[in-house]
Amino acid sequence: MTENETRPQDAEAKAELEGVPEELVLGANDEQASASELEAVKAELEAAKQDVLYAKAETQNLRRRMEKDIADTRAYAATSFARDILSVADNLSRALDSIPADLREDDKMKNLVAGLEATGREIEKVFGSHGIVRIAAKGLPLDPHQHQAMLEIPSADVEPGVVIQELQAGYMIKDRLLRPAMVAVAKKPD
């Protein structure tokens, strides 16, 4: 067979290589070069696959963080407003506590007391609907994560470190501290 004559297999191979870059066609004739190029391409492909996997994982982590941030923002958006309203609730409670028991039964004061108590219940209901709950304090051991000890009172009746008086109510909003309860704690008598 002469150089100008083509074999049927060569014609098929030539047809298959159409559209393939010339560097690859020329490298196909050299087996050793094509094997090393193939290994290099495989290595690049593997590196690209790893990069894609890392990018997908990072995107998924970022999406999860953003979803958590959005959920936290929704859950705790009312925090500063709730702190401000706590002082209103405290003043309402003080107003009720300042009314002597004998005046509470007086016909002139009965409606005022009933109105103040109803307002207090409404505030507690609104707090509850927004996940704001009062922290239990009296009779419990001091919890530095929820209570702020303002003073110690000597007591033989109660174990040292137990809250014996609540000076100001504390509140949580969902699972976060909104305001610590200010308390008096028992200590051993001198």
What secondary-structure arrangement, pairings included, does this model have?
Blueprint: H1 8-16, H2 22-29, H3 31-76, H4 79-98, H5 101-104, H6 107-129, E1 132-134, E2 147-154, E3 163-168, E4 171-173, E5 176-179, E6 181-187
Subcellular location: Cytoplasm
Coiled coil: 28-58
Organism: Novosphingobium olei
Structure description:
This protein is of the alpha+beta class. It folds into three domains: 9-70; 78-130; 132-190, Roll (Nucleotide Exchange Factor Grpe, Chain A, domain 2). 58% of the residues lie in helices and 16% in strands. The chain is built from six helices and six strands; from the N terminus they run ααααααββββββ. It has helices at residues 8-16, 22-29, 31-76, 79-98, 101-104, 107-129; strands at residues 132-134, 147-154, 163-168, 171-173, 176-179, 181-187. A three-stranded antiparallel β-sheet has the order 1-4-5. Strands 2-6-3 form a three-stranded mixed β-sheet, with no helix packed on it. Helix 2 (22-29) crosses helix 3.
